[in-house]
Amino acid sequence: MESPQSGLVAGDPSKQWEWHEAYRDLFKNMYRTTYSDMSHGRETYVRSDLPAGYGGHIPSIRFDVLHRNTAFDRKMALLRTDPSRDAMPSFKSNLDGVPWYTKHPCGARKNPTKGVVPHNGTTTMLKPPWGILTGKRDPLNYRAVPATMKRALSSPAVGERSNVAARNAGSLMTESSSAAQLEMPKAADSPKPNMRWADESQDEMGQSQMLEQSTDI
Question: Where is the composition biased (Polar residues) (predicted)?
Answer without folding.
Answer: 171-180, 204-217
